[in-house]
Amino acid sequence: MKNLIFGLLPAFVLLLTSCGNQQISTQSPVETVTPDPCSSGNLPNSIQNVNDLTREFDDASQLAANLPAQQLPEIISNMQRIRRAAENIEVPACLTTLKTYQLNYMNGMIQILLSFVGGADQTTINNGLTAARQQHELYSLEVVRLLGITLAPETAVPPGLGITATPPSTVTP
Fold it and tell me: Which of 126, 129, 160, 173 has the most CB atoms in a 10 Å sphere around its CB?
């Protein structure tokens, strides 16, 4: 038995010394701090991600307003692609209202264009456009609110400054 213990002793010592060479870290792991996307310094960049899609959608909407009905299906398909991208973008909690207005606007415009292609009456089209524009206005006001921009009310030109409105000239065909 004594020989067995002395025979295993070198292996045990080797095992202990190999474990003893490992250093134990006394430092705490490095914490990575994720910047707050809703802080005043980061908020403009956070809004930019959402706003880029709204601007792209606005461009497509403007194009759709100037095309004949038979060309609208391709534009509507592009608008739906943009809307899906907007739906899929993750936003911080401070931008959920902005995203809601954005999607309401996009859904409204797409629905109106589909109704137009489908032959809806003018009243339905006008009502839908009004509702979509209201959502776009709410979206714009939310951007202004988030960025802390103060809007100045429109003011009329004071009388006596010599500025007069000139009526648009009429062109006779």
Answer: 129
